[in-house]
Amino acid sequence: MVEQQAAILRPETLVDEFKKNGVTHVVTIPDSETNYLYELMLDQDWLDVVPISREGESPGTALGLAIAGKVPVVLIQNTGMMEAGDSIRGMAIDAGFPMVFVVGYRGWTRRGVIRDSAAKYTEPFLNAFGLDYYFVENNTDGDRITTAFEQARATNRPVVVLIGDEYHGFNR
Fold first, then answer.
1. pTM, whole model, 2 decimals?
2. Protein fold of 2-163
3. Residue by residue, what is the 3-state secondary structure of 75-140?
């Protein structure tokens, strides 16, 4: 049981990494999977949560915040990332803005057969767009979020953090 608990990704890990990297705004769609993380972010006096109605709005919203001198992070699911593809291409890649996307890897499984088409297409989507990405599955992987921020700033390109901890780490 203790080993099982140690392997989870706690919402506090993400919030700590956001703070360490100077994040001022989280552009996101609240959902049941990230409810505890969402509530925790709302409790931070240094962080503003910017709710959007569709993931396709996330790159433009984050870009506007970046132009205004803020440090946004985009927090969406893999399905929404694919919906936002043209905006990611035009506003983040072609425009040359450093942007970090924290993407829930819905349907991904470390072991066994992946049956969810969203999971099957996630990495090919990232590779087609030439986006580098890092897996974060548990608390010990949290520093990869900092690595993503460092790389985005150094290259003026988006970098993705894939969250491979569905259904248990973000809930109470």
1. 0.92
2. Rossmann fold (3.40.50)
3. EEEHHHHHHCHHHHHHHHHCCCCCEEEEEECCCCCCCCCCCCHHHHHHHHHHHHCCCEEEEECCHH
